[in-house]
Amino acid sequence: MKKLQEKIALAAMTAVYLLCVARYFPGRVRESLVATGSHLLVAGPVAVGGTILLVAVLQRLGDGRLPWDRVLRIFLTFGIIFELFFGIYHYLAINQPAALP
C-alpha cells in the first residue's frame, strides 16, 4: 500500500509542476504551447542544476546513491518552488505601470 501512495504522490507532484510550468494564452493554443516549451527550456536547467547540487551534497553526507524516486521528488520540489518565485516575478513585471516618457 505504501508503494501505491508514493506513486500517487509522485504523480500529483508531477502534475503540479507541469501546471506551474504551463503558460496559457486564452484562445491561442499554438502560442501557449510555444511559450510553455520555451519556458521549459529556460527554467528546466535551473531546476536540474539545483537538483544536481542538492543530490551531490546529500550523497556526500549520506552513505551512497539516492533512489531515483527521491531524486525526482527533489527535482519536482525544487522546480515547483522556483516556478512559484518565477511566476510572481513575471506577474509583477507584466503588471507594472508604464514609465512616463
How many H/I helical runs?
A: 3
Shape: globular
Radius of gyration: 17 Å
Question: What class do helices, strands and sheet pairing give?
Answer: mainly alpha
Largest sheet properties: none
Mean pLDDT: 85
Unreliable stretches, pLDDT < 50, 5 or more residues?
Answer: none
Strand content: under 5%
Termini separation comes to 64 Å
Tally the structural domains: 1
**Helix and strand pattern:** HHH
Total strands: the figure is 0
Helix content: over 70%
Kindly report the oligomeric state of this protein. single chain
Write the layout of secondary structure elements.
Elements: H1 2-21, H2 29-61, H3 68-94
Helix pairs in contact: 1-3, 2-3
Explain what the structure shows.
By secondary structure, the protein is mainly α. It has one domain. The chain is 79% helix and 0% strand. It is built from three helices and no strands. The protein has helices spanning 2-21, 29-61, 68-94. Helix 1 (2-21) runs parallel beside helix 3 (68-94). It is globular and about 60 Å long.
